[in-house]
Structure formats: structure tokens, C-alpha cells
């Protein structure tokens, strides 16, 4: 479990120019991202929301009518357009780190990546039977394979922060404190 960190108030801006949250669906990226952005005084962007705004369709509709490859193309375009943004917390879609064409987004200078860790049962409990998550419709075995295939990549890209059975505000505070320790 992530340790509690000493409060170092007043908060000063971290060295990173942008924070990207990655993790499996239901890990809390959007909720934690909003809280973290507010604590930093930065903007917050959820890549799925940006995709929906640009496409004029919801993610489930894009998956259903255009297919996952078209969604991944839109996702890559959005990530590239956000690459130069600063003072922003970005909740990346769970599949975004998987695609090699997005690697530069996650490794860009000034970027801090945090992997919000959640167990598969925890993620499924949080997402329930959400109709907003097309990949859940593939069945439990497919979701388990997807989860297991993504974990090593998440772990290799970001600093892991445990979210299981934790309040999103405490997760955001831990990330803020981790960012604070970057300053030198």
C-alpha cells in the first residue's frame, strides 16, 4: 500500500509540467485526476471526454459504429494534440498506453506518469455493468485477459499508487506529495 506522506504545505508547483494518470478501467483516473488538478491549480482533461467532444459521439457509440481501431486512431490524435499542454492533469484511457504510437506522449519531457493500481475484482466492482465501457461487454474471461495483459505495461510506465479500498482524495494527496518531492 502507498505510504502516507508528510504534508509539506504550502504547496509549490512541481517540476513536472503535466501529470498523466494511467490504469485499468475503474482505477479512479477521472475522479483522482479532478481532485489532483484542483489541488495543483491546474486544468483537468479526460481523454475519453475529449474524444467524445471532438467526435460528437460517445465512446460506446464510436466502438459500436466505427470499431475499436477507429477509436484508437481518435485516441492517438487526441494524445498527440495534448502532448504540448502544460499545467494539466490528464486521465488517459486504459488502453492508450498499450499502443506503441502513443509512447511519445507518455515519455515526453516534463511528464509525470502515475499508474493507479486496482485489482480486477476491485475494478469490476467499481465499474459494475456500466454501459459506458464497451470492453466490459466482451465477458469476464476477456476482461481478465485484457487486465492481465495491460498490467506489465502500466507498471513499466508509471509510478504505482494503490487505489484499492482508498478514498480518491487520499490518492490525489499522495500523488501531489510525490510530485512535491520531485522539486530540486
Brief account:
This protein is α/β, with parallel strands linked by helices.
Architecture overview:
With 184 residues, the protein is of the alpha/beta class. The chain has a single domain, classed as Rossmann fold (3-Layer(aba) Sandwich). It is built from eight helices and five strands. Strands 2-3-1-4-5 form a five-stranded parallel beta sheet, sandwiched between helices. α1 packs across α8, α2 packs across α4 and α3 crosses α4. The two termini are 26 Å apart. The N terminus is likely disordered.
N to C succession of SSEs = EHEHHHEHEHHEH
Proportion of residues in extended strands = 5-15%
Helix fraction bin: 40-55%
Mean pLDDT: 85
Which strand order does the major sheet show?
Answer: 2-3-1-4-5
CATH fourth-tier homologous superfamily: P-loop containing nucleotide triphosphate hydrolases
Number of DSSP-assigned strands: 5
Task: List low-confidence stretches.
Answer: 1-13
What's the assembly state of these chains?
A: single chain
Shape: globular
Please summarize the sheet with the most strands: 5 strands, parallel
CATH architecture: 3-Layer(aba) Sandwich
CATH topology: Rossmann fold
